[in-house]
Amino acid sequence: MIPLAGALLLVVPFAPSLFDTCLSSNYYGNYNDGPTPYSIFLPDAACLDLWSSQTLAPLASISEAKHAIQQLVWVEQEAVDYTLIATIRSFRPEFDSFLQRLTAPKRMGRDQDVLVAPERETMGYELLYQTPTAALLSVSESTARTIDMLLPRFWKSSLLSTTPVDFLPVPDKAVKHVKEVLANLRFNPDVAAIVDSISVPQMINDIRFLTGEDGVSGIVSRHSFAEGSRVAASWLKARFEETGATCELQPFLQGFAPNVICAYPSTVNTTATVLLSAHYDSRGSFGSTRAPGGDDDGSGTMAILAIARTIARKGIKFQSNVQLAAFAGEEQGLLGSKAYARKLRDIDANITVMIQADMLAYRKQGEPPQLGLPFTIGTTEVTQLVANVSAIYSPELKVGFTAACCSDHQSFHEQGFPATQVFERAGDIVDPMYHNSGDLSDREGYDFGQVKSIAKVQLATLLHAAGYELPSESD
Ligand SMILES: *[C@@H]1O[C@H](CO)[C@@H](O)[C@H](O)[C@H]1NC(C)=O
Ligand SMILES: *[C@@H]1O[C@H](CO)[C@@H](O)[C@H](O)[C@H]1NC(C)=O
Ligand SMILES: *[C@@H]1O[C@H](CO)[C@@H](O)[C@H](O)[C@H]1NC(C)=O
Ligand SMILES: [Zn+2]
How much is the pLDDT for 79? Predict the structure, then answer.
């Protein structure tokens, strides 16, 4: 689709006004470098000339591809705390050795010990844009799909679409419902009793299955290509269905574990849908096949499962459609959620609130329990609603903003749906087992109490946003 050598790439700080120009039909998405979102365009020369002549184009980078563009991949350094960065030598050599791994000659043949030159099609790459903390690469499709296994620890990757995408801001009318819920938000003792009943012992059981710590599930890794991710998907579907939901395993890309999408019906005839989600796929240390993903994102996954179990235990019926989703392919660039959000956009779904939970469990010694909300990607009104719900139902949480960003809620936000994220810390990532094969639940700093407090916020927001009915006392 983006074939030719000589293609022009424009990387420019995001601004809505960019989409009032000829660039809008050559848009390939927004990607982050630190706290700044950048928009990527592949304009033709005429459009680029026209745009350049009409704008001062501050901080824009234009590059020309020397080779035919293969799969474009954005890689970026994550928002990790300086205490974690101090544990590795420096980002530069780490990134350089990553590039070397991309081009490393492949050992071919079983008995002849020959090293063959790297083949462009299979191992080559072209570096199209680079800052100290982000880069845009063109790599083969197969390399792109497994690039997360080659990346240095505190970097993550996102695959760009192979065709231009639309820029869809969240329309005012989509935010109307959230604004009403926020304006009418008051403490409700029924909601408090429901959310307080979320079971920590149940969460401990659930996470130990997902990480393989129970010694029974046999799960070693929930990486999207690992066998364990399939085991986890079927298990999650069965557990959610036990709570009265109807679930589907939805494949989205060849080779990847499927999304697990579960729905509860509404008691009234409405198209409105509230969606809570997490990603169940995981990532381990470079070179290791173990990826227990206890915090990232077993914690978010067990939180939505705990919410489902509470819905069943309390006999809750909703006055709006409710969906609970466990996505795969997050670690390769939000691939599962992008597919699902596009699907919902295609059917013009009416998502009133979407909240992604990604990493809820880690609490650094000496810090209070926290709730981190995104300060870049997300819908302000949804973020405000979550903050105010937290103050009412989980006052033990210190609420603040985080630069750790861009989990699956970004996929929904990009499709014009009101969305936000909940995270374990009002600041950068400090979990020393982040993207590490040691990311287990049974370890220092893994705080089930904090997970419960954040799950209370998710469920209370769901109850207020969807409306609900409880069984009458005589039932
Ligand atoms: C949300 O909470 C803040 C802080 O308590 C408060 O000032 C604000 O009025 C609340 N917003 C709404 C819409 O209730
Ligand atoms: C629900 O409402 C829509 C739109 O008003 C209507 O077309 C549809 O028939 C209704 N469905 C049911 C089951 O009442
Ligand atoms: C979407 O849901 C909201 C909240 O219930 C409702 O007000 C609105 O009319 C719905 N929109 C559509 C297109 O069904
Ligand atoms: Zn994650």
Answer: 86
Q: Is 321 in the pocket of ligand 3 (CB under 6 A)?
A: no
Strand partners, 343: none
Query: Which residue's CA is the closest to the ligand 3 atom numbered 11?
Result: 350
Question: How far apart are alpha carbons 408 and 425 in whole angstroms?
Answer: 18
- Could you report the per-residue pLDDT of 381-406, keeping only the tens digit for each? 999 999 999 999 999 999 999 988 78
272 lines ligand 3 (CB under 6 A): yes
Closest residue by Cα to atom 1, ligand 3, is 272
- 172-469 fold: Aminopeptidase (3.40.630)
**Percent above pLDDT 90 for the chain:** 75
266 Cβ inside 6 Å of ligand 3? no
Q: pTM of the entire structure? A: 0.91
Q: How many residues does the chain have?
A: 475
Q: Is 177 in the pocket of ligand 3 (CB under 6 A)?
A: yes
- The residues spanned by each domain of the chain are 8-159, 172-469
What's the number of CA atoms in the CB half-sphere (13 Å) around residue 150? 21
Average pLDDT over residues 44-49: 92
Q: Which amino acid is at 255?
A: G
C-beta pairs of 116-123 under 8 Å, 24+ apart in sequence: 120/67, 121/70
- As a whole number of angstroms, the distance between CA 195 and CA 204 comes to 17
Expressed in angstroms and rounded, the spacing between residue 272 Cα and the centre of ligand 3 is 5
Smallest CA-to-CA distance from 263 within 344, 181, 177 is with 344
Q: Where are the alpha helices (DSSP H) in 81-135?
A: 82-85, 91-103, 120-123
How many CB atoms are closer than 10 A to CB 469?
12
Spacing of C-alpha 66 from chain mean position: 32
* Ligand 3 geometric centre to CA of 352 (Å): 8
